Amino acid sequence: MRRSLTVMAVCIGFVFAGTTGGFQLRAQAQADAAPEAPAPVAPADTAELRAQYEQWRQEFKTWGRWGTGDNKGASNLITPEKVLSATGLVKNGIVVSLAAPEPQVAAADVGENGLFNRTTLRITDGGTADNYQVSYHGLTVAHMDSWCHFFENGQMYNGVPVEGNLNEAEGCKKGSIMNWKDGVTTRAVLYDIAQLRGVEWVDPLEPITRADLEAWEEISGVKAGPGDVVLLYIGRWKRRAAEGPWSGQVAGYYADTIPWMHERMPAFLGHDFNIDWNPRPGWEGMRNPVHIAALNWMGINIVECLDLEEAVTVARRLNRYEFLITFAPLPVEGGTGSPLNPLAIF
C-alpha cells in the first residue's frame, strides 16, 4: 500500500560575477577541516558502465524533441497543468528556504573565487547601499546552471554550436539563464538517502546508485516523474557543521543513474553538493559524466549546493516527501547560471 512518508529572493543592487569554470575542487584548507579521506575503490561494473556511457551518449539525447530552436529542454515538461497540480501539494503552509547563507569566509569548500563579496558603499544620515559580487559556480553557493555552462565537442544542448554563440564580451547568445527568467514552479521529490541508509550523513566516498534511488521510492511511496525537481539529500551541511568543511569527495550520482534520469525525465536534478560522484576511480579522463549527460544530452537542468537540512526535518516530521518548489534566477543576459534561493512549500 502506498505510504506517504515523511519567491525567489528579491535582489536589489546586486552585482554578480559568474564564471564558466567547471567543477572546481581546489580550495584553501582550514585548520578545522576534516582530514583527507582515503581514495574510493572502483566499483566492479566500472568498465561496463564506461562502455555503456558511450552508447547512452547517442541513445539518450533529447535534441530536437521540443524543436530545433528549443532552449528549455526538460523544463518544457513544466506545463501550466503541471504547475496547477504541484500547487495542490501545499497542505501546511510551511515555507522553507533551500539555500545556505552566502559564503563570506574562505574554507576548504570555498576557494578565493567562490567568496561572496559584500561591499558597503557609503553610510549617510539617510541610509546606505552596497554591492554584491560572487562567483557562484562551485561547491558552496546554491545555484543553477544553464546550457552554456557545460558543453561537449563544441556543442551545447540541442546541438547549439559554441562557436558564434558564446564569447567573453556577451556571454551566451543562446542557452543562457534567460531561458528561465519566468521562474520554476513545480513538484519536488526529496530522496533522503541518509535516512535510507540509517546514517546522519552519507560517507562522501560513496556513490548514490540507481538501486538507492529505487529503494527510497519503494520505502517512501513517491517517485520523480516528468517535469519534477529531484532533491538528493546526503546530509552534506550536517556533516560540515559537525566535522568541518571539505572538498574533493562528493557522494553524488553514480553513472548507473543516467538511464533512470532518462526514463523519469525530471526538469531538474538537485543535490546538497555537486551532483557528480567524486572522485571517480576508473573514469579518469572523463569530466563530470552526470553533468554532461544531464545538461548536454538530455536537457535536464541542475540545481546544486542546496541546503536541504530544514526541508528534510520538516519532511520527516510530516512524513511527506513531495512538495511544491519554486525558484527563479537573476535575469542576466548572457549568463551561464545564477545563484538561487529556492523555496520548498509544504
Feature tags:
346 residues, Glucose Oxidase, domain 1, two-stranded antiparallel ribbon, 8 helices, globular
What would you call the structural class?
A: alpha+beta
Q: Mind telling me which CATH architecture this is?
A: 3-Layer(bba) Sandwich
Shape: globular
Q: End-to-end span in angstroms?
A: 23 Å
Oligomer: single chain
CATH top level assignment: Alpha Beta
- State the share of residues found in helices, binned by percent: 10-25%
Q: How would a textbook summarize the main sheet?
A: 9 strands, mixed
Fourth-tier CATH superfamily name? Putative cyclase
Radius of gyration: 19 Å
Find the count of extended strands (DSSP E, 2+ residues): 13
> SSE string, helix = H, strand = E?
HHEEEEEEEHHEHHEHEHEEE
Number of helical stretches of at least 4 residues: 8
What's the number of structural domains? 1
Mean residue pLDDT: 89
CATH-derived topology: Glucose Oxidase, domain 1
| Strand order within the widest beta sheet | 1-13-11-7-8-9-10-4-12
Provide the low-confidence segments as ranges.
1-34
